[in-house]
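Task card 7
Instruction: Convert sequence to structure tokens.
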Amino acid sequence: MPLQNRVDPFGRLFHTTARGTMMGNRGGVLHNTNREIVRTYASPRWIACLLQFRGRRREVMAPSRYTEQFFLDEAVAFAAGHRPCAECRRERYEAFRQAWKSAFQQENLPPAGELDLKLQPARINGGKKVNYQAPLPTLPDGCFVAIDGDAFLVAGETLLLWTPEGYIRREPRHGHTSVTVLTPAPIVDCFRQGYRPQVHKSGLS
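Output:
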């Protein structure tokens, strides 16, 4: 059976044979010696990384090593509450910091630790993912919303239905009013400042 290391837009870790295009972690070890997930996160440092970087190789879910998680794309990683890695995705990390600075009218660019501490209560509360209601027309592209139990990516005038393998169906954005937003509110505010998450090829028009 595949390992429980794939992440959906609801922030859940699940089993699938489908492969992601990004890797990440939640600040430490989430698995036991049998490579089973035993906790949701280890620290507020939730990041999204490249699959390959400087030829480094890892054994997935190695004993006492941080738990690797995989995402369909950056939009899913953001929906789950992860931010760009400052090492392997430096350019995207700096772009995200610039968007954050503008969104919250800060004088200086926020350091990684500040981002993590401010994102944490917007990601998770009491072990459960934090979601909220908002009018669909007000949401920028790149957000994930939940409708009837499914996750949809907001993309222009359409909504893209997420699956582990990719986006499989387009629905018109109009016709929906208030929706459950999965992407944490501070990240949505960064999207409003022009940051656009990378999207899997199945979601490109």
